[in-house]
Amino acid sequence: MLLGSTSMLGARVFSVLASLISVGILTRALGREEFGLWSIIGTFVGFAGSFDFGLGQGLRNRLAAAVAQQPRDNGAEAQLFFSVLAFLTFIALVLASVLGGLALMVPWATFLGVHAPALAGPAQAASVAVIVLLALNLPLSLNVAGFLAYQDAARRGLLDVLQSAALLIGVVVLARALPIATFIGAYYVLFDGAALVSLIVFLRLRGWRVPYLHLKPILTVVREIAAPSALFWLLGIGAVALFTTDPLIAARLIGIGAAGDFSIVQKIAALLIGMHFTILTPLWSAYTHAAVTGDWRWIRRSFQRSVTVTVVLFGCGGGLAILLHGPLLKLWTGRELTDVPLMVALAVWAMLYALVNCCSVLLNGLGIIGTQLIAVCLGALVHVPLSLALGQRFGVIGVLYGTIAVVVPILAATAWRAHRVLRAAPRD
Questions:
Q1: Quick one: how far is CA 31 from the chain centroid?
Q2: What is the pLDDT of residues 129-164, one digit of tens each?
Q3: Which domain holds residue 145?
Q4: What pTM did the predictor assign?
Q5: Which among 90, 113, 110, 94 is positioned nearest to 102, based on CA atoms?
Q6: What's the number of domains the chain is made of?
Q7: Within its chain, how far is the Cα of 173 from the centroid?
Q8: Region of 54 on the Ramachandran plot (φ > 0 left; ψ -120 to 50 alpha; else beta)
Q9: CA-CA distance, 134 to 182, in Å (whole number)?
């Protein structure tokens, strides 16, 4: 468990460094609106993960529970994985066709707040291409569920390092050499290629060969995990609407160039959240395993530690970010982006987000979705109109005010549910 968390944290640190270098290169290689386009299109990645209907998370929990049982049935585990893989491959092909066609009809330049006429065509082409590529990524990303279900976070971390390195090399080689739309498309081709390599590596490590599957067994497996998967899916959609739409809202309010600047400042908080969630991620399957084996003492201790680490990490990290973000952003991007009130709001947003993640990882690992699903979906319904209204009144910081106002009751609800579960669980 510790090795897995350490390995994934190391991989995340490398990914953060690669991301920092990439952004530093792109803010200098691209125009302000071109960078904003690349940055805002990057938020599509969060939306794309919602289109697997929660089957990835449902598969992860089912595999983790199967691994904890003795004796193991490797054939049944392979059947489970390949059934979901086959179903998602079909879904991905359908989505790529349907969403690609629909995306052609969306005026992306207007939707994304593109002001430069010369960038309207590239914005349209890049948006459509990325939507298609992210749809095709759905079955490829199942490798993550597989690695984490088997608590093989060390190898997963190594593959994350290789993916980050490939994307960084792509930025270095292609950013100045290609037109912006072609560059963005090539970047996400690399993204899909790295996921394909990871999937192949996972299958080779498991020793599984691709079987010939009939439709009936595939549908049987999908139906068996459909109910919990549907809940994970709805939860994922709500989380995306809450935590990845702020740059899009900012683009609508202030234009894609200024929204790109906002995304740079927000990235400081996002990097902290990313490293934090990397530490938490192996706990998800570990909570499932411990619940199956009845080790509630370990579950309680691990959850308490995760909350303590979160408060320390985000208290110290947020304070440093508030004090040093101006000169650090200047050194990093070459731009003057000092905004102390915005950074304070981001530090609060990040702390709340991270504490929600602590509770969600516990509840998801135990298969308890109801409370957080209701809280997150209600919050998602309120978030966009509230953030738009506050953004129009207070500027870009109002977008964060809206998000914070919605996240506070979500944290209260999920923390209350986690407390009740742990209090009611058996004690040694």
A1: 27
A2: 999 999 999 999 988 888 888 877 778 888 888 999
A3: 2-424
A4: 0.80
A5: 94
A6: 1
A7: 26
A8: left
A9: 16
Hey, what are 52's tokens?
């697997």
Q: Which two tokens stand for residue 271?
A: 């990097």
In DSSP notation, 362-403 reads: HHHHTT--HHHHHHHHHHHHHHHHHHHHHHHHH-HHHHHHHH
3-state helix, strand, coil in the chain (%, to 5): 85, 0, 15
Nearest to 267, CA basis, from 334, 380, 349, 158 = 349
Instruction: Return d(Cα 274, Cα 288) in angstroms, integer.
Output: 22
Q: N- to C-terminal Cα distance for the chain?
A: 22
How far apart are the C-alpha atoms of 72 and 67, rounded to whole Å? Answer: 7
Tokens (6 digits) for 423: 């209090």
Q: How far apart are CA 221 and CA 218, in angstroms?
A: 5
Task: Check: CB of residue 356 under 8 Å from CB of residue 407.
Answer: yes
Closest CA to 184 of 39, 333, 33: 39
Q: Is 214 exposed, middle or buried (0-12, 13-18, 19+ CB in 10 A)?
A: exposed
CB-CB contact of 359 with 375 (8 Å): no
Joined together, the tokens standing for residue 108 give: 């992306």
Over residues 298-335, the pLDDT tens digits come to 999 999 999 998 999 899 888 888 888 888 888 888 88
Q: From the CA atom positions of the chain, what is the Rg in Å?
A: 21
